[in-house]
Model the fold of this input.
Amino acid sequence: MRTITLIVLHCSGTKTTTRYGVERCRADHLRRGWKDIGYHYYITRDGVVHDGRPLEQVGAHCKDHNQHSIGICYEGGLDACGNPCDTRTRAQRTSMRALLTRLHQQFPSAIIMGHRDLSPDLDGNGHVEPDEWLKQCPCFHAILDYEDLEPTDLLNGGN
Ligand SMILES: [Zn+2]
Done:
């Protein structure tokens, strides 16, 4: 198994009013010339967690961070007008938390972040602020939402 230091959350960037299932996502990624869907897990609006690329394989979901990460995507991320929005259904929230809890047990030192949190820190102040986000993905505050799942050694100052 690879070393996993990071779990990156994504949205599919599709409207709540549009169906965008795992097979369409996979087909779109294959069309880009990738060998498989870029994410390791894909959570559809009904809360079902679909297996994507096998965990032991490097994904294709976050430039410069694929090597040691797991990519999870939920279907949605845009409201009916196409604006970035946390569109996670109750079922998606429930299964995302269950999946993260399970992965956290398997990879206790992995940090959970949203795709946007990995944008370059342009002003170098140690924080990636909203005006530095390259994109809005996953359209919610992943670090805050799953703060309670963070590795405890980090919360205690990293010893
Ligand atoms: Zn993303």
User: Anything to note?
Assistant: The chain is about 20% helix and 15% strand. The longest strand covers residues 6-11. The mean pLDDT is 93.
